[in-house]
Amino acid sequence: MELQVNGQTHQVEAPDDMPLLWVLRDLLDIKGPKFGCGVGACGACTVLVDGIPTRTCTTAAADVSGEITTIEGLPDGERLHKVQEAWIKHEVPQCGYCQSGQILAAVALLEETPQPTDADIDAVMTNLCRCGTYPRLRAAIHEVAGMEG
Amino acid sequence: MGKIAKYTRRGFLGLGIAAAGGLAVGYYYYKKPYPNPLPDTLAEGDYSFTPYVIIGSDNAITIITPRAEMGQGIHTTLAALVAEELDVDMDQITAEHGPAAAAYYNSAMLEEGAPFPFFEDGFMAETTRGAMGVLGKFLALQVTGGSSASIDAFDKMREAGATARAVLLEAAAQHWGVAADSLTTTRAEVINPNGERLTYGALAQSAAKLTLPKPPALKDPSNWRILGKSQPRVELLEKVTGASIYGIDVQLPDMLYATVAMSPRFGAKAKSADEVAAMAVPGVLNVVEIVTSAGFGFGIIASNTWAAFEGARALAPVWEAADYPADTAGLKALWNEALDKDASFTLGGVGDPEAALQGAEVIEASYSLPYLAHTTMEPMNATAHFKDGKLTLWLGTQAPGIAAMVTAELLGIEAGDVEVITTHLGGGFGRRAEADVPLYAAAIAAQTGGKPVKVTWSREEDMQHDTYRPMAEARLTATLKDGLPEALDYRVAAPSINKSLFARTFPNMSSAGPDRSILDGSFDQPFSWPHSRFAAHQVDTNIPVGFWRSVGHSINGFVHESFLDELAVAGGQDPLKMRLAMMHDERHEPAREALKAVAEMAGWGQPLPEGVGQGIAHTLSFGTWVAEVVQVDMRGGTVKIEKIWAVADPGMVLDPGNFEAQITSGIIYGLSAAVGQEISFDDGRVVQENFYDYDALRMAGVPPIEVALLENSPRMGGAGEPGTPPIAAALGNAIFSASGQRLRALPFGNDVEFDLG
Ligand code: FES
Ligand code: FES
Question: Residue B317 pLDDT more than 80?
Fold first, then answer.
């Protein structure tokens, strides 16, 4: 199969039902998407497919035809994405394990709703963080929204 | 690495086996400085000064921060300790975990304790206390000295910075032919009276030839430029770009992938397994048996992780029966039987509670707490390479020395032949000190023909093979006098973590002596009972129990602080005022101040609408005093957690921003458990499988949390755990205040419905 990841085309040999998560991690050595649950319940494995947040542990790689963006592909060359900047400013990550997924989910939210309310954030930011970084996640999202406004 | 592992083994086991000899070993090492492990590892043009500082000719400054970073910001704080005295700014340094070596680990394990005693200290305190009897005292002193452990190594890291600075000054003095005390430093430069400057990098080569002086006097805290102020975390850039390498991300040439299918009936072996079906899964290469002290089962080796998972599913082992009651009801009955019998031991307590309760009007209550899993965000994993009699482990671990020791034992090699490379940890919370993960990986690595293998557990495997927070049942009886608590009889039935830990980790040693974790958070609290008795009714099974963020304090914090609320109600007292009235020892002052401060933040005592209520609780744990208030709104028929206020007093705050983040994190961790987490048993195995039936709070369910810090306590306390213990009681007390419904069993979600957004 052929996958477009972070602007590059990859040819991969993989079974049809192999989840995109494991194709990315084990076959293509792209480790940004994380394994958390394998059943679509935590969001650690989130990537963007044509800009839409997608839980890759329950998405067969063979079914994906769009452009995949992982955390590795988010910066514009050396320049961090503004969401990444805000994450650093608010010191959001603790262990950091969920943060690739959180950042990509936030990028998609802000793309769709540049000035999200708390309710908008609650509705969309459903990824699990066992370190409990939610208050800072929320503050960082508002920060980006402020930069927009 | 060789040194540390060998030492650990001798020191640790030696102490357990021969008391006198062990003491000698401990004492010898206590006095002897460890060799600096850095010179062997340095690149061309790099020079090391103490085991903590590397300076390159190019003025690149590296600070070694040899503790596991699991999100608690420890690398930043440790680096700041050195940077403060070295006189460099945080933007000039890189922090590195550094090699595993005696200079770092032994101090954590045997003497001064880690600079910040989150877990390994607790672990050592418990194990040494349990295993080593008299010697345990010697060691436990080091660790309890250990609330001073932080203070002790807090000095040690600063001394490293000061020593390195002194030798650089000396080199500069020789270069210019002036007296060292005529020189000043700033931002990694030495400046002479004429205003000429030399960078540390330019001086490094000549300074490295000089003998390190004794540590000079340290700065007075009033002159601190870095410590006491929030610092940007050193590892943020890599964490927002996906560049951090967690254990699960380790990638080696020729690496195989594997997973485990361990017996979910603890202690039971497999009756049968369908190896043919497993091998038929595309990508599955081999199925191997795992036999260790921590568990029995299978390793499924494959060409990628997903194939290994599928292979494990197909293997579908059938297990023997468990030797403990098969379901939660049966286990609870066993716990309650233990409560009916004599106590295993008591701790603390004053006066004559039996006499005081005799014939008095009493208040009685029973509390229930379930087993809890850790569910770190990153599932358990380890990568192991066993070749030519040497094992290398890549492991996100809170206890590398123990991992080395137990895997060496399993493979029949010297601990010195095990190298542990510590990766980033995707959450720890106490789970990542356990030896089961490296043991299983080592067992598999011994059966790969010398190829490295990354062993990743599925979430289901992780959740069903945890070292759980103990299930507990408590029975309390108290009486009042003039509306104030007068006498307390406190009984809790729970398994011993020490005993369970020893059985799975050091099966040839037995843990003796009381396991105080059963009662932590009750007898040790700042509260003056005229008469009290705190009794542990120990009840042990093969179900593994371990250190869950804040350990015993989260269990007894809930029981003790909920019951105090009941007594306040019974005595017609305000729960805050009643606590303050019972904290009349002057050593209780930090608790009083924390409670008063949190009450003021929360507007405690102001009228609230019908159906809205506040609850308060305070627990002292790991040297930090934490008071919390929760406000709930139940007018909609569900429980909406509106807001949480917390005040923490760790004596001294080195990094306020980071400390606040840790307290908040601890609160959310405890709140998730209080609202909805429960590990239950059926058919001899854990019922819950994944986040769909053992969830934690998400963004929408977490209310605003306001944290303030105080520095009244005379000693430095920890940050990572103390936020957790008071939260369940504060929430339960708030629900009572709002509704009159008293909840005595966790999780509350079984009895009330929460509005989680
Ligand atoms: S790993 Fe995909 S949602 Fe959890
Ligand atoms: S930062 Fe650790 S799980 Fe989110």
Answer: yes
Using one digit for the tens of pLDDT, what is the confidence trace for B20-35?
222 222 222 333 455 6
Ligand 1: does its nearest atom lie under 6 Å from the Cβ of A35? yes
Residue A149 falls within a domain, yes or no? no
Distance CA B375, CA B459 (A): 8
Which ligand gives the minimal distance to the CA of B248? 1
The finding on whether A101 has its CB within 6 A of some atom of ligand 1 is no
Residues in contact with B484: Cβ distance below 8 Å, sequence separation at least 6, in sequence order: B571, B573, B578, B581, B582
Distances (CA, A) of B403 to B3, B422, B466: 15, 11, 17
* Co-location of A134 and A89 in the same domain: yes
User: Which atom of ligand 2 is nearest to B376's Cα?
Assistant: 3
- pLDDT bin (cut points 50, 70, 90) of residue B90 is very high
Count structural domains, chain A: 2
* CA–CA gap between residue B632 and residue A135 (Å, rounded): 18
| CATH classification of the domain holding A55 | 3.10.20.30
- Burial of residue B360 (CB within 10 Å: 0-12, 13-18, 19+) is middle
Answer yes or no: is A86 within a domain. yes
CB B123 within 8 A of CB B399: yes
Q: Which atom of ligand 2 is nearest to the CA of B426?
A: 2
Instruction: Please write the tens of the pLDDT for every residue from B502-511.
Output: 899 988 877 6
Residue A62 domain-assigned (yes or no) = yes
**CA dist., res. A31 & res. A52, Å (int):** 19
Three-state secondary-structure class, residue B45? coil
pLDDT digits (tens, 9 = 90+) for B537-582: 999 999 999 999 999 999 999 999 999 999 999 999 999 999 999 9
Report residue B271: phi and psi, to 5°. Answer: -85, -45
Of A22, A49, A57, which is best to mutate to test ligand 1, by the most ligand atoms within 8 angstroms of its C-beta? A57
Distance of CA B178 to the CA centre of its chain: 49
Domains of chain B: 3-106+141-240 (3.30.365.10), 247-321+380-456 (3.30.365.10), 342-372+468-750 (3.30.365.10)
Strands of B705-709's sheet in order across: B612-621, B624-633, B640-649, B705-709
Q: Domain containing A126: what range?
A: 82-144
In chain B, count H helices and then E strands.
22, 28
Averaged over B406-414, what is the pLDDT?
95
Distance B733 CA to ligand 2 centre (A): 29
How confident is the model over B347-356, as a mean pLDDT?
A: 95
**Which has the minimum average pLDDT: A136-140, B41-45, B69-73, B278-282?**
B69-73
Pocket probe for ligand 2: among A46, A92, A131, A138, the residue whose CB has the most ligand atoms within 8 Å is: A131
- Using a CB–CB cutoff of 8 Å, tell me whether B478 touches chain A: no
- By CA distance, what is A17's nearest residue in B? B306
Sign of the torsion angle spanned by Cα atoms B60, B65, B69, B75: negative
For range B362-387, the mean pLDDT: 98
Question: Quick one: pLDDT band at residue B214, thresholds 50, 70, 90?
Answer: confident
Residues B305, A35: C-beta atoms closer than 8 Å: yes
Same domain? For A129 and A91 the reply is yes
**B699 CA → ligand 2 middle, Å:** 12
Residue at a domain's end among A73, A108, A135 = A73
| CA triple B451-B456-B461, angle to 5 deg | 135
**Residue (of B743, B474, B746) closest to B632 by Cα position:** B743
